[in-house]
Amino acid sequence: MSRVLSLDAGQTRCRLAVPDCEVIETAPIITDHPVLPQLAARVRQGIADFGAVDEVAIGSTGLPVDATAAELLKLLAGNGISGVWLAHDSITNYLASLGIRRGVMVAAGTGVVTLAVGARDLARVDGWGYLIGDAGSGYWIGRAGLDAVMRAFDGRGSATALTQVVVADFPDLPNLYLSLQNDQGRVARIASYARAITDLAVSDEICRQICLAAGRELATSALAGLKQAGLSHATAIPVGLNGRLFGAAIVRDSFCASVREWYPDAEFIDSHASSLTGVGLLPSVPAEMPLAQQIDSATLIQ
């Protein structure tokens, strides 16, 4: 029986697992660097920690449209791997949230991606990265919070309690932008402020408005996906909520209220399965599902 290594590659961390072993975490994927070599490096690290594996299943953020499982298999030559399954993390998060049901899934963490699956059509919305997309994500919230802090510092905006949190990390606020620009982990670092912002939303109006806006942005993506996937006229549509950001009640409630304006009977499903679970399901997705068209695989010819 084949031993399969599962890799869930995100912008905050990567997680690796093989059956009957503890999950390990390693460095995140940097999406403004070539992704496939980074995935190959994480797989090799997994082999070093877990021992030999026969096959690899991967769900990755920032996966280029022209990235192929065959190319990754070549990068892994000499490691004893005979097969690779490769998919964007929207696919693996969907599988973890809704399995093979029709519906829509929003995965909201450091970044965000939405995937809607209908009878014949599949629609991915956003997931365009921190520079031009990821609306409503942890990075989006963190960036909005830091913007509010600097506006208050300049006198361009209202005071916010978030300033005290940021000053504790960066006592010299005028140099904050330089510190972040020079930080290779700046995406995760900026996103880390989402936790403070959602906590402060109870008492701070600036933080509250940022969180409400994030929920509306996430809902806009979900609604766009449902329309493109041919589910505009569905009623009790399953809506999968995946990612740590939905653990913030204010973001979750804003999202659900916005979706219910168009789908009053929507069924909101909090995903309790790890996205690694979705990675492990890649090899078993039925060929007739629209999801199967988005899963690339390659096998080493003996």
Q: Number of DSSP strands?
A: 11
Strand content: 15-25%
| Structural classification | alpha/beta
Shape: globular
Order of helices and strands: EEEHEHEHEEEHHHHHHHEHEHE
Separation of the first and last Cα atoms: 17 Å
The number of helices is 12
Structural Rg? 20 Å
Low-confidence stretches: none
The major beta sheet can be summarized as: 6 strands, mixed
Helical content class = 40-55%
Query: For the record, what CATH class of one domain applies?
Result: Alpha Beta
| CATH topology group of one domain | Nucleotidyltransferase, domain 5
Please give a structural write-up.
The protein has helices at 35-50, 69-75, 89-98, 129-132, 138-154, 162-169, 176-181, 186-191, 193-200, 205-228, 249-260, 275-281, and strands at 4-9, 14-17, 24-26, 55-60, 83-88, 103-108, 112-117, 122-125, 238-242, 267-270, 296-299. It has 302 residues and is an alpha/beta fold. It has a domain at 4-88 and 275-299: Nucleotidyltransferase, domain 5. A 6-stranded mixed sheet has the order 3-2-1-4-5-11, with helices on both faces. It has a 5-stranded mixed sheet with strand order 8-7-6-9-10, with helices on both faces. A hairpin with a 6-residue loop joins strand 2 and strand 3 (24-26). Helix 10 (205-228) packs across helix 11 (249-260). The protein is globular.
